[in-house]
Amino acid sequence: MRSLLAAAFIVGSAITGNASAQAYPARPITIVVPFPPGGVTDNVGRVMAERMKDALGQSVVVENVSGAGGTIGSARVARAAPDGYTLVVGQWTSHVGGGALYTLNYDTVNDFAPVSLLTTAPLWIVGPSKLPPKDLRELIEWLKANPNRASGATTGVGSAAHVCLLDLQNRTGARIQMVPYRGAAPIMQDLLGGQIELSCLEASQTLPHFRSGKFRAFGVVTKDRWFLAPEVPTMEEGGVAGMQMPFWHGLWAPKGTAADIIAKLNAAVMTSFADATLQKRFTEMGHDIPPRDQLTPAALSAHHKAEVAKWWPIIKAANLKADGQ
Question: For residue 276, what are the domain limits?
Answer without folding.
Answer: 2-121+246-317
